Amino acid sequence: MGSKFSGKNPPELLVDQFSRTISYLRLSITDRCNLRCIYCQPKKIEETVPHWKSVEILQHRDLLTYEELLHFASVAVSMGMDKIRLTGGEPLVRRGILNFIRSLNNLEGLKQIRLTTNGVLLPELAEPLFQAGIRHLNISLDTLKPEKFARITGRDLFHTVWQGIQIAKNLGFQVKLNVVAMRGINDDEFRDFAHLALQEPLQVRFIEFMPVGEQAGWDKKDFISASEIQSLIMQEGTLTPQKGQRSEGPARVFSLTDREGRQGSVGFISPISHHFCDSCNRLRLTSEGRLRSCLLSDQETDIREILRSGGTDDDLRSAIRLTIMTKKKGHAMQEGPDSIAQAPCHGRMSRIGG
Ligand code: SAM
């Protein structure tokens, strides 16, 4: 591969025009998923199950191979990107992921590999993932009610995911639950999620619903701001900001303490109402090999073309630098939900990775 750094040449610091150091790479390793969440796949809630099979997916030849992903990652890491998150689609449905993780683990300079998953395959894969070196899991769970889970995701698998969460926790993973906040769908459960954070050793993070993908069914009336969610959570206890949360990325993280003195950890991710572009340190590689500097912007660099046309590591490095140098100061929805006339990005979330 010729791109691992030897330790003799320290990696360059990847700094963009707005003095942000870019060190975090998100890889969408597949656009395939074993769920059909209403906000991710382009269908409305009532239509989810009947349209199960109608979702368009990439051809296998269009996905980057593991060799290509590893090649790109090794170049990015050699340039100073030291944290990688695997996402999708559902990363655990891609065969060979454990070997891929082991190969990533051999990249000198890579400090962390994390994974975002819907948890469906955790009952069988949590242990091998732990053995492969993963220690941090973000697990998506938008409801604690099995029936609602089936309506949101199109599959009756709440208990499987719940079992996966328990197994992951017991194995010693650091678990964060991602809850996409949707008015009229799960806003009646935010306080239950706060209770969960008080009872279990996991962090609950509420994510503002984003308009990603032109048919994804986002509507302003479904949107709930992080501050509104925060006020609901404050009915359960006191929120105290946790300091030194750099590794938490965009989440604002709080300790929640209830009247009985129980403590939990709760985070709020507010890309719309309180954007965090100033501290954004990430690049995303889509499952078809396009490098994006922002989830909410369609500007992309075609890495697959470079990899498949005999491009060199220097070509890849130039493409990474170009993507970083053209990273915009902020995304298109800086003015909050009222400023959103249409989705600012047209790629599907499952290709881009959430
Ligand atoms: N399949 C994995 C999962 O479910 O976690 C990884 C991919 S999923 C696209 C990554 C994250 O994006 C999930 O936490 C999901 O809830 C979130 N997500 C997807 N669409 C979203 C949207 N429109 N607004 C906010 N979050 C979204």
Describe this structure in words.
The chain is an alpha/beta fold and 354 residues long. It has one domain (24-333, 342-352): Aldolase class I (TIM Barrel). The chain contains ten helices and twelve strands. A hairpin with a 7-residue loop joins β11 (290-292) and β12. α3 (122-131) runs parallel beside α5. S-adenosylmethionine binds at residues 33, 39-40, 87-88, 90, 116-118, 140, 178, 180, 207, 209-210, 212, 216, 349-350, 354.
Give the averaged pLDDT, no decimals: 89
And the CATH topology?
TIM Barrel
SS element count, helices: 10
Helix/strand-derived category reads alpha/beta
Q: How far apart are the first and last residues' alpha carbons, in Å?
A: 29 Å
Question: How are the secondary structure elements laid out?
Answer:
Blueprint: E1 24-28, H1 66-78, E2 83-87, H2 97-105, E3 112-117, H3 122-131, E4 136-140, H4 146-153, H5 158-171, E5 174-181, H6 190-199, E6 203-208, H7 226-233, E7 238-241, E8 252-257, E9 263-269, E10 282-285, E11 290-292, E12 300-302, H8 303-308, H9 313-325, H10 349-352
Parallel strand pairs: 1-2, 1-10, 2-3, 3-4, 4-5, 5-6, 6-9
Antiparallel strand pairs: 7-8, 8-9, 10-11, 11-12
Helix pairs in contact: 3-5
The structure holds S-adenosylmethionine.
